[in-house]
Design brief:
- The complex is a heterodimer of chains A (about 325) and B (about 500).
- Chain A has one domain: Orthogonal Bundle (ABC transporter involved in vitamin B12 uptake, BtuC), CATH 1.10.3470.
- Chain A is mostly helical and about 325 residues long.
- In chain A, α1 packs parallel to α12 and α3 packs antiparallel against α4.
- Chain A is about 80% helix and about 0% strand.
- With about 500 residues, chain B is an alpha/beta fold.
- Chain B has two domains: about 240 residues, Rossmann fold (3-Layer(aba) Sandwich), CATH 3.40.50.300; about 250 residues, 3-Layer(aba) Sandwich (Rossmann fold), CATH 3.40.50.
- A six-stranded mixed sheet of chain B has the order 6-9-10-3-11-12, sandwiched between helices.
- The radius of gyration of chain B is 25 Å and the shape is globular.
- Classes of the chains: A mainly alpha (about 325), B alpha/beta (about 500).
- The interface between A and B is medium-sized, with 26 and 34 residues.
- Chain A: It is found in: Cell membrane.
- Chain A: This is ABC transporter permease.
């Protein structure tokens, strides 16, 4: 019994190391990038710039905290930015015309997110429409709704809202970074320690087997899109605070940022595999590259090329490591 | 270099992880001869044919075609070019394309610099082939408009459009009506008269007698009989197919049989029709039948996996509505599906996750890891699951241990009725015996077991009562001691 337990502990340590494989290479990549960028630019490795990187990552991290959960079920949520745009304009309307206090604004942001997330959830989980198709469609539908609500820029005047978006605590740490890590830890905890998280992984790994084991797979998937919507709504509200204004076109065209980071983080698009730690590392890699290239005054166009290449490279490494090429 | 045999397989051996699938097996067919290859599921028939087609590589043994060695590295495509063609149970045709296109798929005649399809030539080629076998079809009919039998003919034609020497047919009549079967027989005899060597795999003994010249019987990866069809009887074949010492493998322990737990009345689900049965505490009820006889549909209808179009289900005397496994679990029904990989397990995840999946509700919103580990350790020990730790992917275990994990997850849910579908498919003999023992033990603890199986010896070996399924209906019921394997197989497989 005792030897069994010892063997068990040893094995699970090994297992942990194994699952760290992808994360480990991302950490090495981050360290390598940091060293390279520090050499290339004296402005890179400073406390302020590190905070800039985190600040620029904050919104993506919030969105990704929801999207990662949805994507582990084998799903996808491309509509997050559109949901965020609606949340932004609705929140600022409430704030401007009704004088809603910050806590109401936050609740509205979350509420809008949950509502539109529920639409995705019903379409995907209960009406069985392919998640990519569904969210490409709702991405457009929700974007249109945001424009229908307002086609002008709505200023955010609430000081506390703006503080939440771009203020610093003690002139050191951005408030939105702290909030983003709050989302990160919630999602991390949810996936790793709760019954719901376990169900998400099982449904993603084999939906039929999960159903046949008495898991309510539809409900699990529905909740995933609620969470993804919640994160999107909150992020949209926070962006308005960051920018100081809510725009219906907010986040348009950057839908893939979140997906790229998540995939870079080692999530399997067919479901069952992925983690919040991987997602965080994926976001950091992409953001460090973007930040470094900006410091080096590399043009935005070239940045896109480089970011895209990194993603292909990362996935390629994964393919090679899994041995899929040899099997052919 | 000539040879007496068109095809000769010598000493073929194939080891799968944990199972010796083929053990030094020979097979011979002469030109113009139809050889039946029979045996129970898992006897090694399909492995043998996969090795012949090049889909699998044998560990030992050689294949000779007309006396010449077929190099083992030749793939399926190259072997087809050599004249070895196989028609699988599932037909491979494209409904939306024409007969001609299906016949010459992959090698359509082309013309011009752009290599566009030369339909004129295609039509001509197809017509020639159809004429050669006196089939009156228009080559430009869509295959989707044909009957199943006609599709089957097209499939065969495709195989023989090349200069075929050996044709393997795997359960070719599984989707044909009686008259269509007769047509197929005529076609097979015609092919044989043209010098093709035919290997005919079937479960149905009446077909074997109707169309074959020789019979090779396989059991547990060995050849146990090679007979002239006209010199043998159905009884002899069944004996050869079954023929093991039943008592050694199935240590039947009589459990006390109690009250009825599960009762179903007049259930219809897909091909299953008017299925009624009851199962009692401590009883093992065997549902025996060949593949496609409706056993799985009946059970999946009862469990709500498929739609039950008629009928009623009672658990402990109370009428229940079961729409899915969530309901089924609530009423104490557990289901071990036939396919571990597709329906039983989340392969990429750990033994832990796969075992606790049915009882997550009992482990709290935040999973109580201690409780979970204790529970899993208990089941690993009880079922003697060989795993280095509960946290390795279940994918890395052997088939037998994987099956034990599926059983463990349902036993953890503390069921009243355990329904197992082909519980020992694809696992080795040692693990089989362990699973039989486990099922017996469960009965002694008062659980009712319903076992679907197409392996007759295990059904006869451990069931207290057997229902025989054929063509979607229950065609017979036997109590323990009242049945012999021959009677059962004759009902399930024989003619009317």
């Amino acid at each position: 019994m005792s030897t069994n337990e010892a063997a068990l502990r040893q094995r699970s340590f090994k297992e942990k190391m194994g699952s760290m494989g992808n994360n480990l290479s991302l950490i090495i990549a981050i360290i390598g990038l940091c060293i390279a960028m520090s050499i290339a630019s004296p402005h890179f490795f400073t406390f302020n710039n590190m905070m800039n990187i985190l600040l620029a990552s904050a919104i993506t991290l919030i969105r990704a905290s929801g999207a990662t959960i949805a994507m582990i079920t084998g799903g996808m949520d491309l509509s997050q930015n559109s949901v965020g745009a609606i949340a932004g304009v609705v929140c600022s309307t409430a704030s401007l015309s009704m004088g809603a206090p910050l806590w109401v604004v936050i609740l509205i942001g979350i509420g809008v997110g949950l509502g539109f997330g529920a639409i995705n959830g019903v379409l995907i989980a209960y009406l069985k429409i392919n998640p990519i198709i569904t969210t490409i469609a709702t991405m457009q539908i929700f974007r249109g709704i945001a424009w229908l609500i307002t086609d002008v820029t709505l200023q955010v005047s609430d000081k506390s809202w703006i503080f939440m978006g771009r203020g610093y605590i003690g002139d050191l740490v951005p408030v939105s970074v702290i909030i983003a890590f709050g989302f990160f830890f919630l999602a991390f905890f949810l996936l790793k320690y709760t019954r719901f998280g376990r169900q998400v992984y099982m449904v993603g790994g084999n939906e039929v087997a999960s159903r046949l084991s008495g898991i309510n797979a539809n409900k699990v998937k529905f909740i995933c899109y609620l969470i993804s919507g919640l994160a999107a709504g909150f992020a949209g509200m926070l962006v308005a605070g960051q920018v100081g204004a809510a725009l219906p076109q907010n986040g348009d065209g950057t839908e893939m940022d979140v997906i790229s980071a998540i995939v870079l983080g080692g999530l399997s698009l067919s479901g069952g595999r992925g983690s919040m730690v991987g997602t965080l590392l994926g976001i950091l890699v992409l953001q460090i590259v973007a930040n470094g290239l900006q410091l080096l005054s590399v043009s935005q166009y070239l940045q896109w090329v480089i970011t895209g290449c990194i993603l292909v490279l990362a996935v390629l490494i994964d393919v090679i490591r899994s041995g899929a090429l040899k099997k052919q | 270099m000539g040879s007496e045999y068109r095809l000769q397989m010598k000493g073929v051996t194939k080891q799968f992880p944990g199972v010796l699938a083929l053990d030094n097996v020979d097979l011979e067919v002469k030109a113009g001869e139809v050889l039946a290859l029979i045996g129970e599921n898992g006897a090694g028939k399909s492995t043998m044919m996969k090795i012949l087609s090049g889909a699998l590589v044998n560990d030992q043994g050689e294949i000779y075609l007309d006396g010449e060695l077929v190099p083992p590295e030749k793939n399926a495509r190259e072997r087809l070019d050599m004249g070895i063609a196989i028609i699988y149970q599932e037909l491979n045709y494209l409904d939306e394309m024409t007969i001609a296109e299906n016949l010459f798929m992959g090698e359509l005649p082309v013309k011009g610099a752009l290599k566009t399809v030369d339909y004129k030539k295609l039509k001509q080629q197809a017509q020639e082939l159809l004429k050669r076998f006196d089939l009156p079809y228009d080559p430009f009919t869509k295959v989707g408009n044909l009957t199943t039998a006609e599709k089957q003919m097209i499939e065969i034609l495709r195989a023989v459009s090349k200069d075929v020497k050996v044709l393997v047919m795997d359960e070719p009549t599984s989707s044909l009506s009686e008259t269509e079967v007769q047509e197929l027989y005529g076609f097979i005899k015609d092919l044989a008269s043209r010098g093709v060597a035919i290997i005919y795999i079937s479960h149905k003994l009446d077909e074997v007698f109707a169309v074959t010249d020789k019979i090779q019987v396989m059991r547990d990866g060995k050849r146990v009989g090679y007979l002239n069809t006209k010199d043998t009887t159905e009884e002899e074949l069944v004996e050869l197919m079954v023929g093991r010492e039943v008592s050694d493998m199935y240590p039947k322990v009589e459990a006390e049989i109690g009250d009825v737990i599960l009762e179903v009345k007049h259930v219809d689900c897909e091909i299953a029709h008017d299925i009624s049965f009851e199962v009692r505490k401590g009883e093992i009820l065997g549902l025996f039948g060949l593949l496609g006889s409706g056993r799985t549909e009946a059970v999946e209808g009862i469990l709500g996996k498929k739609e039950m179009t008629a009928g009623e289900v009672y658990v402990e005397g109370k009428k229940v509505t079961i729409k899915n496994m969530i309901d089924a679990k609530k009423y104490g029904l557990a289901y071990v599906p036939a396919s571990r990989k597709d329906e039983g397990l989340v392969l990429m995840h750990s033994v832990r996750n796969n075992t606790s999946i049915t009882v997550l509700d009992q482990l709290g919103g935040i999973i109580d890891k201690k409780k979970e580990t204790a529970m899993i350790d208990q089941w690993i020990r009880k079922l003697q699951i060989k795993t280095p730790s509960p946290d390795v992917p279940v994918d890395s275990l052997s088939g037998g241990n994987q099956q034990k994990v599926v059983l463990a997850k349902w036993l953890a849910a503390d069921p009243k009725v355990l329904i197992v579908n082909e519980p020992t498919r694809g696992i080795d003999v040692g693990a089989k015996v362990e699973i039989y023992k486990l099922l017996e033990e469960l009965c002694q603890q008062g659980i009712a077991v319903v076992m679907i199986s197409s392996e007759l010896p295990e059904t006869v070996g451990i069931a207290d009562r057997i229902l025989i399924f054929k063509e979607g209906e229950i065609k017979g019921e036997f109590n323990r001691r009242d049945f012999t394997q021959k009677q059962i197989l004759q009902i399930a497989a024989g003619g009317e």
